[in-house]
Amino acid sequence: MGVVIESEVWELNPAIYVFILIACFLSISLFPHFSNRTTSSLSDHNVVASSSSSFLKFQRKFLLVYSLSSVLEGFWWVFGEYEMVNAGLSKEQMVFALSAGCLASLFVGTFLGIFSDALGHKKFCLLFYVLHFVIGVWKTLAAHPAIWITSICLSLSSSISSFSFETWMVVEHEKHGYRQDGLNDTFWLMVFSESASLIGSQMLANWVVGPGSKKSFVSHSFIPILLAMINIALTARGLPESPERGRVKEHRAAFLSLICGDKRIWLLACAEASLHFAIAVFWILWAPTTVADGRELKLGLLYPCFLGARMLGSTAFPWSLSGLLSLRIEDCLLYEFIGAGLDIGVLVALFCSFQALVGLISPTLGRLRTMYVPNEFRAGMISLSLAPANAAALCVLIQGGYYRNLNNSIIMAFAALGLLLAAGCMHMLKNLGKQPHQNWHKL
């Protein structure tokens, strides 16, 4: 007896979006009432930096710039796929363009973090905007720009975004002497605002494309050009810059000496690489996986649902540090990686749960990096951890997308195993014991 696939289009229940919004609001608003952070624990401090006007001013400026940067990057994510389809590219040509971007990230982006640590993170944030500005201008002037060159530039800018903004924020935060609880809040707010900004970028892309065949009067290149110019102005004049670190050669030698000699950093880098690979696999395969059984659905409605789930997961981060659970941060990540690995293995039913856990894992990893990695090597460590993830993603694109030697279920299984491997790294990191690079203030 054959299976009959209904022809009607399957849509999400609108109540899901309402539930995510209400859950985010309750998680944020109820946390102060249940948190173990009391005013008595802060009585020894004359000024609480997390609530001071100077810290809030710094945090708001940074989150504004980071959110606009996320909109800029997310716009090309959404519109780039539409552009390749509209240009009539075959699947093999699309895989070739994406593979070119992975190669650039693997052989160039891996080392950009080391240069960022040595030369200054603000310069690389500006380079991120310049790359997007150049792409926008080039697409405006060229009738048929090369897709693979665009993919390379966007991949390099994505690599820069993965380490430059976070490292810049952490360096400036500690240089001004703000408390660590304020840094923890900024970590989860970064994930929250990034997810919200990506939803906003989808709205912008849909507005530019227009309903059906009707296009907006605004050129698709005008929005990234405008956003890049605004971000360049805000970054160059509105935010502080740390002094230059020194010569690249001396910094590289010190970086290799520290990174190669500390097992804790290697375990942390392995966990981060597994997470990056799993996220890449998810965004490559979620659409073909959900329609694999022949169903029809509006993919544009699932995208904000996933990002909303990530926003909800990020709001759980301060709860995990509040003392309600007597767990070390390595234990938290251990259970989170196991949950993410099991979720991605079940595929469609738990995609939202996977994204929620990603929203929780991302700021937790940011806090763990602050504990184990010196700030002067932070960007280099992040970019180095991207190398195995980019190599694995390139293998997936070639073997699965071009030669079609791997089916989607096998690729998903590899991603799930990677997350379980990351959980094992967290267990080993806990057993090695803490050796933070600096003394932490009590939360």
UniProtKB/TrEMBL annotation:
Keyword hit for Transmembrane helix: yes
Superkingdom, taxonomy of origin: Eukaryota
The keyword Membrane belongs to this UniProt entry's keyword annotation: yes
Pfam families per record: MFS_5
InterPro entries: MFS_trans_sf, MOT2/MFSD5
TM ranges: 15-34, 62-79, 94-115, 124-141, 186-205, 217-239, 265-286, 301-321, 333-357, 377-398, 410-429
Keyword annotations: Membrane, Transmembrane, Transmembrane helix
A Gene Ontology term for the protein's cellular component: membrane
GO molecular function, one term: molybdate ion transmembrane transporter activity
Protein name, as recorded: Molybdate-anion transporter
Organism: Carnegiea gigantea
Phylogenetic placement of the source organism: Eukaryota, Viridiplantae, Streptophyta, Embryophyta, Tracheophyta
